[in-house]
Amino acid sequence: MHYGMTKTAQVAVARGIAESVAGTGVTVNSILAGPTESERVGGSVEAMASEQTKSKSDVEKGFFELRGLRPF
């Protein structure tokens, strides 16, 4: 299943729950974690680094900067 689709589904579920408890004093929050280092992601980043003749670290930094994010 596509990563973006699962994020959208999580937001939709939270919104639906929030609407169903509206006016009860219950607050519904949704936390959507960002990119996570995994074997698959690491392999993709290494491949991009090789194609761009950059270090893996530089490619990761560029990924976050392009999206206005910062790694923890």
Notes on the structure:
With 72 residues, the protein is mainly alpha-helical. The chain has two domains: 1-32; 35-72, no CATH class. Helix content is 58%, strand content 0%. Helix 2 packs across helix 3 (56-66). The two termini are 26 Å apart. The mean pLDDT is 87.
Keywords:
single chain, 72 residues, mainly alpha, 2 domains, 3 helices, 58% helix
Give a brief description:
With 72 residues, the protein is mainly α. It has helices spanning 3-20, 39-51, 56-66.
List the helices and strands and how they pair.
Elements: H1 3-20, H2 39-51, H3 56-66
Helix pairs in contact: 2-3
Number of domains: 2
**Mean pLDDT metric:** 87
- Percent range for β-strand residues: under 5%
Please estimate the helix content.
Answer: 55-70%
Q: Would you report the number of β strands?
A: 0
Number of alpha- plus pi-helical segments: 3
Shape: elongated
Task: Tell me the distance between the termini.
Answer: 26 Å
Order of helices and strands: HHH
The biggest beta sheet, please? Answer: none
- Contiguous runs where pLDDT drops below 50 for at least 5 residues: none
Q: Which structural class should the secondary elements be placed in?
A: mainly alpha
Question: Rg from C-alpha positions?
Answer: 17 Å
